[in-house]
Design a protein that fits this description.
It contains one helix and 14 strands; from the N terminus they run H-E-E-E-E-E-E-E-E-E-E-E-E-E-E. The protein is mainly beta. Residues 1-27 form the signal peptide.
């Protein structure tokens, strides 16, 4: 399942146009289209592996307008283990965001998480976040879930239904030598099972922009509840935008 970025590969970084090039592109055409591809040694989403601690190949296509509107799609292989036959995740998303002043900005998002070869696993959420300088905080609310009727489903599997809330905060800092540091934390408040599924997680990433060769990252994630896999996860990633 996809993180909040809107794209799930945001944690491994992405290439960005310079401010001058971006302003020039806006002057010529308010519309822009980009594609991205990435490889990760473990697909982590909100602290939990989506590939049974194995590698994933991911990619997406994005549209953006100078007004702040954006939309796109993103896909990744997944493996939920224990005989689950779900093979891939397909996300569809749209959003709107903008700057309030030089230090503050906001973003609104709508994401649909689809698992076409799974049964009753799709869900959708709406999110809002704000950024002040290098700190971003936000919340996402699940307003639709195919698994809303969780009768007969084990407590540890009945996640992502209407009413779930996810809170998150992150900080991003530029370092010397074209390095960047990102630290993050989140808390999942599940509606089902009266809090028995709720958990907190945290992590950090160090990434480096290698120009035409993309962006490379070293990452750490961990969950803070022993009813889940609470072992620390260390993984590497590569991402490139076109």
């Amino acid at each position: 399942m996809n993180p909040n970025r809107i794209r799930a590969t945001a944690v491994i970084g992405a290439l960005a146009m310079s401010a001058g090039a971006f302003q020039a592109a806006q002057a010529e055409d308010p519309n822009s289209v980009s594609a991205n591809i990435g490889v990760v040694s473990n697909y982590l989403w909100r602290g939990q592996t989506q590939t049974d601690n194995q590698a994933a190949v991911q990619g997406g296509l994005d549209y953006a307008h100078a007004s702040g509107f954006s939309a796109g799609t993103w896909v990744s292989n997944v493996d939920f283990g224990d005989g689950d036959e779900t093979n891939y995740e397909l996300d569809l998303y749209t959003g709107f965001g903008g700057a309030i002043n030089d230090d503050m900005s906001y973003a609104l998002s709508l994401i649909y998480y689809a698992y076409p070869d799974a049964r009753d696993s799709d869900f959708a959420e709406v999110g809002a976040s704000g950024t002040f300088k290098w700190i971003t905080a936000g919340v996402s609310y699940t307003f639709y879930g195919q698994a809303d009727d969780a009768s007969g489903v084990p407590d540890d599997e009945a996640n992502y239904i209407q009413g779930d809330l996810y809170y998150h905060i992150s900080a991003d800092v530029d370092l010397p030598y074209q390095l960047a540091l990102s630290v993050r934390g989140g808390y999942y408040d599940f509606k089902y099972n009266d809090g028995g599924n709720d958990y907190a997680h945290w992590g950090a990433s160090i990434s480096r922009d290698a120009g035409d060769f993309g962006t490379f990252s070293l990452n750490y994630d961990q969950i803070g509840r022993d009813t889940y896999d609470e072992d620390p996860k260390f993984w590497v990633g590569w991402n490139k935008e076109f």
